[in-house]
Amino acid sequence: MLLIAHRGYHPAVPENTLAAFEAAVSIGVNGIETDVRLSRDGLPVLTHDRVTRSGEPVAKLTRAEIEKISGHEIPTLEEALECFPRILWNIEIKVLAALPAVIDAVKRYQAGRQILITSFHHELIPACAAALEVNCGILLAHRPMTLESLLNDLNGDGNPRINHIVWDYEALDNVLLKQAAENGFRNWVYGAVTREEHNNCLELGLNGIITDYPLLVRDGQRI
Description:
By secondary structure, this protein is of the alpha/beta class. The chain has helices at residues 18-26, 63-70, 77-83, 99-109, 124-131, 147-151, 174-182, 195-203; strands at 2-6, 31-38, 44-46, 88-93, 114-119, 135-140, 162-168, 186-190, 208-211. α3 (77-83) runs parallel beside α4 (99-109).
C-alpha cells in the first residue's frame, strides 16, 4: 500500500507548502497529495480552501495577496514538481478553471515525474487522460449504487490512463473494491484517522492511502 502524505506532512509547518513537502520526503513517504486552484493572476497555486481566512476567494486574489493573507509562501504546481522530482505526486484539481494551467505545467514535467491527477470534478479526468501521459483517477465522497453506474460516463473511450479510484474511508465497500480491481482500477483511500482505520486499509488490500497521519503506516506493515 503506497503511503501518500495529505498536503505534505504538516504537524509543525503549514500544509501545501514546500516545507510540508520536504517534511513528507524526510519521513519516507511514497508520495504527496496536493491541491491546485487558480489565482487571479492565472497561476496554479497549491492551496486547499476555496476562501482565505480573510473571507476573500482564492480565485479573486493574486498569489502575492494570498501569501500575505496566509502568512506563508504559497507554491505553484511547477515549483513543487521542480523541487521534488523523485516523489510520486497526486495532484488534485479543485476547480474547473485550473485545468489548462495544470495541463500546461504537467506537460513540461511528466516525462521525469510520477504523477496521478485526480478530481471530484469527474468531467475533467477524460480531458486530462487525453492530453497528458500520466495516470488519472476520480475522487469519491459517496458509495455509488453500482460500479457500472459510476464508470459508465467516465471511461467510455477505454482510455487506460483512467485507472484510479480514490474512495472516502466512510464509503469503502469490499464488493465495490473487488469489482474495481477486477476492472483494472487501483483503489486508493483518504480520510482514515485512527490506527485501527489505517490497519483496516491494509487488510482491505488497498493500493494507496492518502493520510494526515503517515507515521501510522510504515512500509506497508501492520502497526
